[in-house]
Amino acid sequence: MTSGIVRGRGVIRERGVREGCASAFARLAFVLAATSVACASEPAPTAPAEEVVLPQAPVPGSSGAPTTDSEAEPASADSAIEAPAEDEDRADYQRDDVDRSKAVVVPFAVRDSTIPIEVTLDGPGGPAAANYLFDTGASFMTVSTAMARRIGLEIPPDAPTLEFRMATGTFTHSLVRLPALEVGATRLEKVLVSVCDTCVEERAGIDGLLGGNVIREFLVEMDYRDGNLVLLPWTTVRDNRAGDLEVMVRLSVEGTPSMLLGAVDWSVKVENMSPHPMAELRPVVEFDGGVRLVGTTIEHIPPRGVASSKVEGRAREWGTDSSPIRYTLGLEHGRWASDPSPDSKAAADPSR
Fold first, then answer.
1. Backbone angles phi, psi at 142, to 5 degrees
2. Which residues pair with 234 in a beta bridge?
3. Which of 2, 47, 48 minimizes the C-alpha distance to 24?
4. Which residues of 99-126 are buried (b: 16+ CB within 10 A; e: fewer)?
5. φ/ψ (deg, to 5) at 21
6. N or C: which end of the chain has fewer CB within 10 A?
7. DSSP secondary structure string, 189-253?
8. Do the bridges between strand 126-134 and strand 208-210 make them parallel or antiparallel, or are there none, so unpaired?
9. What pLDDT shows up at residue 167?
């Protein structure tokens, strides 16, 4: 992600602020090891906003004054909600957008803090079975260098990296794309993984972390009564991989970001930092106040390529506010494109 501030009247020009590369994790639901993620170059965090507590509206028919437990009237039998019987079938919570025939049921000990899951990593050198830790605190699935060698997954020296600030210090991890991952009967294609050797726990037989970018491909049910974790794959293939691609691109506004009478007419440059092509990318600019302006679609960006998207719209009404306005660049949509075949690569290489 990239952030900045525009200020002034008439033509509102930027006082640029460039955040660290790992600030892209602000858009993700999970953060590795449940800690903040930042680059060393990231500016110091600002003080938190003052918490505002709204007064609670009185219950209709009451005086609105607080009551103690002894003053509260017991609910009548007619208004009470009857608890379901202990042996009642709890399968009444059904959804038609998940495939229960492919459910992955993982037993776990209620008193244990870890839930290992058997998965299969499929790399260029073949598949390998592994035990991964179900970890909602990890943004991405991880892979060790030993596992990468085992499945023939190359880690290029110039692979995109992120710096993770954790309780034990700051670590730089390379990001690579795993061709495929199998969780039970579900096969996930083109999964972004973070190369992390410290995420392996050999004594516990854990080969890595199953993070948020894999977990979100499932509806997750936690059954503490029977001690089961249930992963239900979605029935439709999720084509939007913006969460993965956002950390593999560099976003910037071409020229000097400015607003004329509250209107925006920007060109957002998208640089593909990965060795894989991308498709259907739509940058988004989010302004203070909740305004979101989505750019035009970039149909295709080759590996290490650059393209631009047009962002137009109104960030705010002219004359309503003259204070500086902060913006953040991100991806609203994007997916991995198909890699070119070896034959087409050879044909495009002039040295051959």
1. -115, 160
2. 98
3. 2
4. eeebbbebebeeeeeebbbebebbbeee
5. -65, -30
6. C
7. EEEEEEE-STT-BTTTTB-EEE-HHHHTTEEEEEETTTTEEEEEEBSS-----HHHHGGGEEEEE
8. parallel
9. 66
- The token pair at 122 is 């499929």
Residues of the chain with pLDDT below 50 are: 7-92, 350-352
Name the strand (E) or helix (H) holding 147.
helix 145-151
Residue 253 has phi, psi (to 5 degrees) of -90, 125
Number of H helices, E strands in the chain: 4, 20
Q: What is the dihedral of CA 289, 290, 296, 298, to 10 degrees?
A: 110
CA atoms within 13 A on the CB side of 88: 8
CA–CA–CA angle 15, 21, 25 (5° rounding): 110
Distance CA 24, CA 164 (A): 12
Assigned token pair, 115: 């839930």
pLDDT in tens, 25-48: 333 222 223 333 333 333 333 333
CA distance 257 to 253: 6
Beta strands in 2-138 (DSSP E): 2-7, 11-17, 104-107, 116-123, 126-134
Q: Which of 267, 270, 40 lies closest to 163, judged by CA?
A: 40
pLDDT number for residue 168:
73
C-alpha neighbours within 13 Å on the C-beta side of residue 197: 4
SS (H, E, C) 78-118: CCCCCCCCCCCCCCCCCCCCECHHHCEEEECCCCCCCCEEE
Closest by CA to 162, choosing from 42, 311, 314, 301, is 42
- Enter the tokens of residue 35: 């800690």
CA atoms within 13 A on the CB side of 331: 28
Is residue 95 within 8 Å of residue 236, measured between CB atoms? no
